[in-house]
Amino acid sequence: MGCSSSLPDRSTGRLGGLNNSESGGVADAKNLRVKLVLLGDSGVGKSCIVLRFVRGQFDPTSKVTIGASFLSQTIALQDSTTVKFEIWDTAGQERYAALAPLYYRGAAVAVIVYDITSPETFNKAQYWVKELQKHGSPDIVMALVGNKADLQEKREVPTQDGIDYAEKNGMFFMETSAKTADNINQLFEEIAKRLPRPSST
Amino acid sequence: MDTAASQSSSSSIMFYDFLDKMRNPASLNLVKSIKSFIVSFQFSSPNPENDSKRVQEFFSTMEAAIMEHPLWAGATDDEFDCSMEGLEKYIMTKLFSRTFAISPEDVKIDQEISEKIHLLQSFLRPEHLDIPPFLQNEASWLLAEKELQKINAFRAPREKLHCIMSCCRIINNLLLNASMSENHVLGGADDFLPANPPQLHSNLKYIQLYRRQEKMISEPAYYFTNLVSAKSFIVQLDAKSLSMDEIEFEEGMQAAKLDSKVSQLEALQAQTDPIPSTRMHGMKSKIDGRSNYPYMEAEPGELTVEDVERLLSLYKDVVTKYSSLCRAVRRPSATRTGPSLPIPKGRDDILLQLEGQAQMIREEKAEVSNSGAFEGRTINSSGIAGSPLGCSENSRWHRRQIAKGIAVCLHHHATSSQLPSQVFKGMTPLRVCLVTQLVLPDVAASTLIIACCTHSTSSLAHAHNIFVAGLKFLRVALDVNGLLLSWIRLDKEKRRTGPLELTTILGSTF
């Protein structure tokens, strides 16, 4: 049976049976398929990060929305494996907060974004961390991301605060700028490295 | 764009391919197991979670069997996948009535959601969800809505899922095309449920349970989740979820509920419930357009909390009266078909006139709707804005009913002088006056009715005063727009005369 990478779905079914669809990762040692959910307050730039990562674009007026769209991007790692990120963006507004579990259920990765110029968004990020610790899947990989790092002069959340909080919670931390593309690809590469690999090879 | 239609055609090709393979004698063993599964399933008692497990397990078993089967030897992944889709479609089409919306709870939830959406649709506006104006292009939403509405045309989980995807993709494209600022983006499509597809909950549950699990991933799963989240949002929705204050929300919901109750009542031809007695307002209030309707000139900013409370109680009053009037109008209509009462001489003419009047109103519907200026404004000026009557469609129908009702009342009046007062019980004399003026060409007849309605005094003089005051009020309405003239039966040249002349004309008959 030729395992074509164009149809990862099928291999999932064959290998894993029923429960596999609930888990974010796909058990193919070489080619991972990963469900990644983005959480964070409205306006912190979640969509911009994805857009920069997937399309290499940044548009301050954001003509393209990915709020309701589904984007995926495959990256190749040095060990000649690939990781396909399936990125589930979520609505940041408070009124939709209660719906988040529908989105992060079964996610292998959660990227929690805040805006370094806004302490409230940092608080909100901490809320999401707690929520995921309580209700997310136990082996979820969490990344804390301080976005808008290009706005140094408006910074209100010190880098150290982010580092400390992430460390305390066993998360991976990075400051990014979707505008300048700073650390965007690195973010996803680092996440990819941290993914648990299927043990069977 | 991948529409449900194109999907369904491609899916029927793969379905026929599957059926072809099943007709091949070589697949007899597969056919046997499929048939026996369907039969045994149909005989078991329904239990959604368990059913889903059984179906999914059967898919897996069949998947393995098909993979090993000589008929599929050398088949590509695509061909193999098509066969599995064919299998899903075949099984689920056969088991549809046994699996879809099977539990009473689901049926109930479907109903509740549908009702809630229906209620919300009557007052919820895009801005309440902070959807920016440039996204409020209804035509595009309509397109998305149409895709979603197709969901009930399909039985296979895959096809239902495709309807959702098409809908979401249209919304997606819509957002893509609209230039927007990033802040607005996220809320827009995620949660705006454009349509009210029947059995939304059951459809979602069905897809979740019976779509092949390995297919519920990636993009379809994301869009599916969007709709599930939209559904949950609606179920949980209250004022806090909206950019709307609580009073406004509650009021909107109440009004929508009453409105839909009234239409239900009408639809069911509500039987002979006793008319709830309501206080007689208005008798004591000054009968003058302005002072009686002090909020006509008010700006939203000027209203105090007390005002809002007063307006709310006024509003409820009007709605109650409207409901009881509807019922009252229904009642004589119903008895009318019973053993016919002797029609007194002289009344025939009025009856005929009134029937004609109703016809005229019907005909004028077109004329009126051509004039945008008329919509709502007269209604406002008669002080019933925001009531179910505020809906112009309703009000025209309503007037027609009143015309009929009054005709019947007059008819009954010969035998029972109670009926007219029953009909108008709970209405302010002013309102009675207005209503009768609108439908009765005969001023004397109006006066007669009003005389019957005013419980406090049956004196004609009093009725006359009320009537004149009503005319004054009518004039205010006429000032707002001359179109109200068309509701009153006048000769053509008289229609062209101004409001002042009209008063004189009508006044002179006293």
Helix share bin of chain A: 25-40%
CATH topology of chain A: Rossmann fold
Count the domains of chain B. 2
CATH class of the largest domain in chain B equals: Mainly Alpha
Would you tell me the overall average pLDDT of chain A? 80
Radius of gyration of chain B: 31 Å
Global morphology of chain A: globular
Give the overall shape of chain B. elongated
N-to-C series of helices and strands of chain B? HHHHHHHHHHHHHHHHHHHHHH
Compute the number of helices of chain A: 6
* CATH architecture descriptor text of chain A: 3-Layer(aba) Sandwich
CATH fold-type name of the largest domain in chain B = Glutathione S-transferase Yfyf (Class Pi), Chain A, domain 2
Q: Can you count the beta strands of chain B?
A: 0
The biggest beta sheet of chain B is recorded as: none
**Oligomer, anyone?**
heterodimer
> What is the CATH homology-level superfamily of chain A?
P-loop containing nucleotide triphosphate hydrolases
Summing up helix and strand content along with how strands pair, one would put the structural category of chain B as mainly alpha
Rounded to the nearest angstrom, the distance between the terminal CA atoms of chain A is 17 Å
What does this structure look like?
- Chain A: GO terms for molecular function: GTP binding; GTPase activity.
- Chain A: Keywords: Nucleotide-binding.
- Chain A: It holds the Pfam family Ras.
- The complex is a heterodimer of chains A (201) and B (510).
- Chain A is of the alpha/beta class and 201 residues long.
- Chain A has helices at residues 8-16, 46-55, 100-104, 119-135, 159-168, 184-194; strands spanning 31-40, 70-76, 82-88, 109-115, 141-147, 172-175.
- Chain A has a single domain, classed as P-loop containing nucleotide triphosphate hydrolases (Rossmann fold, 3-Layer(aba) Sandwich).
- In chain A, β5, α5 (159-168) and β6 (172-175) form a beta-alpha-beta unit.
- The longest helix of chain A has 17 residues, at 119-135.
- Chain B has 510 residues and is mainly alpha-helical.
- Chain B is elongated and about 85 Å long.
- The termini of chain B are far apart.
- The chains are: A alpha/beta (201), B mainly alpha (510).
- Chains A and B meet through α1 and α2 of A and α3, α4, α7, α8 and α10 of B.
